[in-house]
């Protein structure tokens, strides 16, 4: 596990070093791009999808903004908005960014397909679009996220590990994410690649808006349909939904392994206490850095070759320059080597009140 955490850190460093090179290569670029003459005085739009998941306001936004400032000697202007899980509102926010004449737009889509026309409008207005975390449809210029199929595989492998020899004679519930999020389909794909043929899926849900409340209601329905003694584990696509699922399980007197994703503080605390089996730790720093680096380069008219080593295609864009960041399975055994080592949380933040004794037992410090 320690090696995995070190690999993640190394990946983050590599992305950062790539940025240093790209930020200094602007001297010989074509002057045909209007933004190329701006130097560091660029205007960047940042649109994030929702605020129910803790990561966006706590990690993504400040990390992206900090990196943009670093890359532009504090000269860039950043315009920010959060769509609060409203696709129509996000379309209006793109219109505002176009009106405000940003040079480049970092976009994490609420609905990857519905945003396609807005992306086209931005590009028609001369604004390059970096798809962040979710692969938005339309003529995007760059993309950064995690290997989302691998995220699902990681969750599936962990759940099988938790079930052990019971897997072949058991059934689980699968709680996938929202159908409007292309990442959710990839998480589901990866999980099924691992779980299918190894364990029976008794009930499976696509959870509207990734809502913990909807996940809770879905779990209650699954318990009612399958019976409280017929559920051996739950695949939950993220930590927020895991919280709602665990509430339903507790109410029914069920204690089974539950997966998660995002390493949210509440999720990490549930792992410490044994209520949740695992989460997927996705280091936001290298993802945010990649988005900032690509956005700054595009705004200045620079090449992405030194930053984006991967290519990803969507239904409407082919071979998009991309940065895909590796992930780690987070369990009670590697909290010190992941979220604490990387400075995401301190032991004091995790080990509050009722979690302190469990933290002490696990050696979290």
Tally the helices: 13
3D shape: globular
SSE string, helix = H, strand = E? Answer: HEHEHEHEEHEHEHEHHEHEEEHHH
Q: How are strands sequenced across the largest beta sheet?
A: 2-1-3-4-5-11-10
Question: Helical proportion?
Answer: 40-55%
The tally of beta strands, per DSSP, is: 12
Low-confidence stretches: 1-36
Intertermini distance: 17 Å
Output the structural class: alpha/beta
Can you give the mean pLDDT? 91
Provide the gyration radius in Å.
Answer: 21 Å
Q: What is the makeup of the main sheet? A: 7 strands, mixed
How would you concisely characterize the structure shown here?
It contains 13 helices and twelve strands. By secondary structure, the protein is of the alpha/beta class. Strands 2-1-3-4-5-11-10 form a seven-stranded mixed β-sheet, sandwiched between helices. The chain has a three-stranded parallel β-sheet with strand order 7-6-8, sandwiched between helices.
């Amino acid at each position: 596990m320690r090696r995995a955490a070190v690999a993640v850190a190394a990946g983050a460093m590599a992305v950062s070093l790539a940025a240093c090179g790209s930020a200094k290569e602007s001297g010989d670029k074509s002057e045909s791009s209007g933004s190329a003459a701006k130097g560091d005085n660029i205007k960047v739009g940042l649109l994030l999808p929702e605020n129910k998941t803790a990561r966006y306001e706590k990690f993504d936004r400040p990390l992206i903004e900090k990196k943009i400032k670093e890359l532009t000697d504090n000269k860039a202007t950043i315009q920010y908005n959060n769509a609060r899980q409203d696709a129509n509102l996000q379309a209006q926010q793109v219109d505002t960014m176009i009106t405000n004449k940003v040079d480049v737009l970092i976009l994490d889509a609420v609905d990857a397909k519905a945003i396609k026309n807005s992306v086209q409008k931005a590009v028609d207005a001369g604004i390059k679009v970096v798809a962040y975390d979710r692969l938005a449809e339309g003529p995007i210029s760059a993309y950064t996220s995690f290997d989302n199929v691998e995220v699902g595989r990681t969750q599936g492998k962990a759940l099988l590990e938790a079930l052990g020899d019971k897997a072949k004679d058991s059934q689980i519930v699968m709680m996938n994410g929202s159908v409007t999020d292309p990442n959710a389909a990839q998480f589901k794909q990866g999980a099924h690649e691992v779980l299918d043929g190894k364990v029976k899926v008794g009930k499976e849900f696509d959870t509207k808006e990734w809502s913990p409340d909807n996940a809770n209601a879905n779990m209650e329905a699954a318990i009612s349909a399958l019976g409280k003694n017929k559920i051996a584990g739950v695949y939950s696509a993220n930590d927020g939904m895991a919280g709602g699922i665990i509430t339903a399980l507790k109410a029914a007197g069920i204690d089974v392994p539950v997966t998660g994703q995002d390493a949210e503080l509440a999720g990490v605390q549930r792992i410490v206490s044994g209520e949740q089996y695992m989460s997927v730790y996705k280091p936001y720093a290298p993802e945010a850095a990649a988005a900032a680096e690509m956005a700054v380069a595009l705004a200045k008219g620079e090449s992405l070759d030194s930053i984006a080593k991967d290519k990803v295609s969507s239904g409407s864009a082919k071979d998009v320059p991309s940065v895909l960041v590796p992930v780690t399975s987070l369990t009670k055994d590697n909290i010190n080597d992941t979220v604490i080592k990387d400075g995401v949380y301190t032991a004091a933040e995790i080990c509050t009140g009722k979690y302190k004794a469990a933290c002490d037992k696990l050696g979290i410090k």
